[in-house]
Amino acid sequence: MSIVNNTINLDMITKKTFDRGFNVHVDFSIRLSKTKHYQRVFAHTMDTCGVVSTIKRNIFKAWFQSMWDRSNFVHRCPVTKSHYFLRNWTVDPQLVPQYLSAGDYRVTCHFFYGKLKSKQEEFERHVEFLATNYTFNTKYFKNFSVSIANKTLNMDMELARPIQRGFKAHVDYQLRVANAKNFQTIFSHHFDVCAIVSNVKDGLLKSWFKSMLEYSNFMHNCPVEVGYYYLHNWKLGSTMTHQFLYPGEYRGQLHLFYGKYKTKTEDRVITLIIDSILYN
C-alpha cells in the first residue's frame, strides 16, 4: 500500500479464498489541537462480506462502491485467490460524514476471522452525569432549571409560550483526552425537535426521548402547550450510547432555537451544557 499525490494505491496477492466470517474492526482516531498523540473517538466491527454484498447503502458500502472504478475488486463473496489492486483512490468529500469536525484523523483497520479480542466487551457501558450549565430566553420560559443529583439529570421548566414546528436543535459532541484541559468537538448534529418527537422511526435521539417519557410529563407531539414540564432522575441506559464511542470524558452542548443557526435570523431559546463520563 502507498499514498501518491494524496491518493491510495494498493496491491495484494491473496493466498486463500475469503468467505463469510471475514470481519473488519475499524478504529477512527483524531489528533486534537496542541496534542501529539491520536485519541480513539469511535470504532465499528462488521462482516466484510456483508458490506460487499449488501444492497443497503451506508457509509462503508458507499466507500466500497467508490473503489469499483479504481480497482478490480469483486462485488460479492467468496473472494477467490488472485491479484487485486486499487489505483489512485480518494475519498469523495460527499462520502465524509457531515458531523465530523475538521482535523487530523487516523483510521486503523484490523481484518480477522473469529472474535476480536477485547476486554471492553466484558463490561456494561454506562454514563454518569457530572455537571451542567445553561442559559434560557425569558421570552419563551417563565422559569427553567437543570440540575444533577445522584448522577441523574433533572429539569424543571415553565413555558411562557407554545413550542411550535420549526423549533430546532444543534448538538456538539465533545471529547477531552487524557491530561488535556479543554474539550474539542468530534462531531455535531442538527435536527428538527418536533420531527424527532413525532417521528415513528427509531433512532438514537428518538430512543433518548422515549426513555425520558418514563421520567417526565413531556408531550408526545407539537405544538407543546404553555405549562409546567419536568424531567426527574433520568439517566442514559447502557443501550442508549453510540457503541462506537470510546470511554472517556464527554461534553454535550445543546443549542435550541428558531430560525437559521448562527445567522441574524436565529432566535436562541436555550443553551445547555452537560459534562459526563462514559464507562465500559
Structure report:
The protein has helices spanning 48-53, 59-67, 193-198, 204-213, and strands spanning 2-4, 7-13, 22-31, 39-47, 83-89, 104-113, 126-136, 141-149, 152-159, 168-176, 184-192, 228-234, 248-258, 267-279. It is mainly beta and 280 residues long. It has two domains: 2-117, no CATH class; 126-279, Ganglioside M2 Activator Protein, Chain: A, CATH 2.70.220. The strands form four sheets. The protein has a five-stranded antiparallel β-sheet. It has a three-stranded antiparallel β-sheet with strand order 1-2-5, with no helix packed on it. It has a three-stranded antiparallel β-sheet with strand order 4-3-6. A hairpin with a 2-residue loop joins strand 1 and strand 2. The protein is elongated and about 70 Å long. Pfam families: DUF1091.
Short description:
The protein is mainly β.
User: What is the average per-residue confidence, as pLDDT, rounded to a whole number?
Assistant: 85
Number of helices: 4
Task: State the end-to-end distance.
Answer: 34 Å
CATH class of the largest domain: Mainly Beta
Q: Can you tell me the number of structural domains?
A: 2
Strand pairing plus helix content: what structural class? mainly beta
